[in-house]
């Protein structure tokens, strides 16, 4: 694995951020990594290119510093349990393979790219898009872009599993009804006295219909919902249940055809109804099994998972039940969007006002003359200078962060004051009757926005939140707060608190794509010591599983008679 | 050991003394006419505090002081009765009841300081 880190940029002084012409876009962007993870249905190849450009511009503007890691996987499908496989080789095979490794997981494609001569090391022409370490490769974009092209394929993939299960379930649901109705509809010729339905048969039919109703309601309540995640491997429990349903239904139909349709003379309608009722019972029990396997089994916590986010080191611990790795990953993602703070890549380095002055670098002092006269003054000056240098080098981070927090607090206070003052304006406009024209919330928002625009903009600038909030979003948020009589602090909460990831409007996409990396097979259950990793663009979540310890609780008896106390005063006695 | 610079040898220090005679056990006999006469010192400690009996104050210009009793002396036994694990009240009674007292004492400032410790743990062993 190779890391590359570019030079640390410095931020310009207060005011507009001007791109530093001398700084180079730091880091090596692995475009295949980028492309595979931006598997957004509405991104076509062209827009991916534009997105890249825009991203590059943004990088130059905000001087983003990243460390890129050459990863081994391309999409969720291609990662499998091959721990001995060398990672670097896989990437080069991918790019050299020119799209041949398209969705096939696990195959090693041998492509003769290198010319077979002795000095192949000198003039190797490997077909990659990267001509230098510092350029992005757009060829990989086009290669991968062919895989996840448009929304149709992805939508099909997303709903395929559920659709199949729904189909099988529908088939199973309709079969008892069909079994009961087929004799009645004169599809097969049965004698009319065979078709007589006495009271026992009527009772059976009533219970049959009620059981079907309960089956329908139960399935609707539990299973009729959008699939939460598209997972790379099959969902074993769901496949098991579906297969069970199919096997049951098929065998029942087989029996039906063989027994009932073949022996038309001896069959009675009552036995057909019995048969259908037993099928409905079997389906109800399968639904019970499905509820246990799919919903209940993973509810009791058995493991603790630690979720560690990579670029900023935020971590959380959760209790999780018995799940497969991919389901655990989906579960962790749910918690991630609910609990973690928004990751602000521009806050990786604490922004400092001043440029790093050259005296911070370590100088070496050489005493040229080598004379010992005035040893006191020399040593004292040298000692203080070196001490200051050492202190500033070690404490630089501390003082910068301290200074930064002070500035943030100052601007936050000014922002709150400005907002409160602006909101008082709007209140007075409400109370005054006839002095000014009444405005709807949007117009009211537009009218008071200028008075807090400057303070808000300065605050957003110092907390590097500008890319997250556009003026339209701010105005609409303000309009909503005014319409619902929210206080100024409630309006400002959106900009002051960056707590759950969903606070970021940009995360409200329909589909979020994440990459899952794990050493073991993804449909295996998790175990103590399992480690898997979820990736999306900059953010990298490392999840490690450990057992919840078994608690051995023993009873300890404190006898109430031993609950006596004495006063222990260490007093002196004169003798 | 010798060190360069201005550090003095330990054995050359004026307060240095390797004479441990002051910590040895000694026998002191006190006689008084009446049992109500004061002996001339205060005692402190006891079994309930998990320590021995120590002298905490010696009245000046009295017989006890002249006999060499001082603060931080631990009473080990009185008239043959062991005072290392005895309750405070019993010790006081024994001391007050006899007119002739033969005490075995020793100078033990460490144990005496421990009687002033604020935190007293039930698991601490008695300094014997």
From TrEMBL, chain B:
InterPro entries: MAM_complex_regulator (IPR051109), PDZ (IPR001478), PDZ_sf (IPR036034). Pfam families: PDZ (PF00595). Residues 27-97 form the PDZ domain. It comes from the Eukaryota. Gene3D superfamilies: 2.30.42.10. PANTHER family: PROTEIN LIN-7 HOMOLOG. This is PDZ domain-containing protein 11. It comes from Portunus trituberculatus (Swimming crab).
